[in-house]
Specification:
Elements lengths: L1 E5 L11 H16 L6 E5 L8 H11 L6 E4 L6 H8 L13 E4 L4 E4 L3 E2 L2 E4 L3 H13 L5 E4 L20 H9 L4 E6 L6 E5 L2 E5 L6 E2 L9 E2 L4 E8 L2 E8 L11
Helix pairs in contact: 1-2, 2-3, 4-5
Length: 257
């Protein structure tokens, strides 16, 4: 199974909206040009910039004609109620009215978590969601599982980002260690591609389709116009291999939709 992981598009509206929209559209076009095409796309949070209803309408306009399944996760810039008002009951949220959900594909289980903690840039899953995760993972131990969320559960040495990582990471780790068929934890938030071991599996974070965070020891958050990209996860019974796919600054084939 092939999963394209995009992240942090920060779609907005108004006079400064074009760059974010174009970045997401370019990334989706690059996904379509891959052969074989991925089975689905997951966008791991910070879908929009301010969590406003009009921003989710703009996001729907961008992804509405995309011909592959797209699944959405919340980030700290998102608003759960506005997201559900726009996408609840649709395949973008697994057909349900919750911001965490799972999809049982023949070759893998895809789990999308909701790490949004309203009023806090850091993330939290909570006891109820972690119990749900434990139960879903226990239901299909014979196939590999990929767990997607916005906030990475580890410190990565970036003083501007480490304090706002996943707060209940130890609780998540305790769940994942009970399920060795989890072959990848896929996060966003950092606006950089990062790889780390976590809870007996591998954590990867996807770069942003818009703007990257400067790799520095400065505690003040800085953005840089580094190339945009996404991750492509190849999931098989023997594990998961992840590729970084360049979008901008690359003479790569793309498709229109």
């Amino acid at each position: 199974m092939l999963i394209a992981q995009l992240s942090d598009p920060h779609v907005t509206t108004g006079p400064l909206a074009a760059e974010q929209a174009a970045g997401l559209h370019r990334a989706l076009g690059r996904v379509l040009a891959l052969r074989p095409r991925p089975d689905c796309v997951v966008i791991t949070g910070d879908l929009v910039e301010h969590g406003r209803p009009d921003e989710y309408v703009a996001l729907r306009e961008i992804i509405g004609r995309f011909p592959l399944p797209v699944h959405l996760a919340t980030g700290n810039h998102d608003d759960r109620e506005s997201l559900l008002d726009t996408f609840g009951g649709t395949p973008y949220l697994g057909g349900g009215f919750s911001a965490y959900y799972h999809l049982d594909h023949p070759d893998a289980t895809l789990l999308v978590l909701d790490s949004l903690a309203p009023g806090d840039a850091a993330g939290r899953l909570g006891e109820e969601q972690l119990g749900w995760l434990d139960g879903v993972l226990a239901g299909r131990p014979e196939v590999p599982a990929v767990v997607c969320l916005h906030h990475p559960p580890v410190a990565v040495g970036m003083p501007a980002m480490d304090p706002i990582r996943l707060i209940d990471a130890d609780d998540l780790a305790a769940v994942l260690r009970r399920h060795p068929h989890v072959v990848r934890v896929a996060a966003g938030h950092l606006h950089r591609p990062v790889t780390s071991n976590f809870a007996g599996t591998v954590l990867t974070t996807a770069p942003s389709t818009w703007m990257q965070v400067s790799l520095t020891d400065d505690p003040e958050l800085g953005m840089v116009a580094e190339p945009t990209a996404f991750l492509l996860h190849r999931v098989a019974v023997d594990g998961c291999v992840t590729h970084t796919v360049a979008v901008s600054h690359a003479a790569a084939r793309t498709c229109w939709f």
